[in-house]
Amino acid sequence: QLQLEESGGGLVQPGGSLRLSCAASGFTLDYYHIGWFRQAPGKEREGVSCISRSGGFTNYADSVKGRFTISRDNAKNTVYLQMNSLKPEDTAVYYCAADLRYYGNICLRDGVRDYWGKGTLVTVSS
User: Fold this and answer.
1) Are 8 and 19 in contact (CB under 8 A)?
2) Is pLDDT above 90 for 2?
């Protein structure tokens, strides 16, 4: 079965850190460009960060620049999102998505992707 699975979410205090993982099973992520998206309660899903299949291109939403870092380890078939200095407004379900198509600077636009994970909940609260 071909699927993506996110992990690493949880409850963290403001200012804290979490690292999310996006692991693929049934296929290799080497050929895929990956995006992280999030959906907060009552809001539309939005792009957070993306990385090209080589890792040479990354992009971030303005709201997370300087705080979040996307990376990938193709040997482990996993993409990561390191989230530091978390704020209550970062609370959301975080999804990863994989696509063979390269979106470049528009990779943060929500839309159709080849694969989506089911999401992991991040709650930032004291």
Assistant:
1) yes
2) no
Q: How far apart are CA 73 and CA 75, in angstroms?
A: 5
User: pLDDT, tens digit, for every residue of 53-70?
Assistant: 999 999 999 999 999 999
C-alpha neighbours within 13 Å on the C-beta side of residue 68: 26
Question: What separation in angstroms does the CA of 106 have from each of 16, 70, 88?
Answer: 29, 16, 26
The answer to whether 70 and 78 have CB atoms below 8 angstroms apart is no
Bridge partners (DSSP) listed for residue 114: none
- Of 123 and 111, which is predicted with more confidence? 123
Q: Cα separation of 28 and 49, whole Å?
A: 20
Structure tokens at 40: 């907060």
Task: Compute the chain's Rg from CA coordinates.
Answer: 13
What's the rounded Cα separation, in Å, for the pair 37 and 50? 9
Q: Are 60 and 68 in contact (CB under 8 A)?
A: yes
The β-bridge partners of 104 are: none
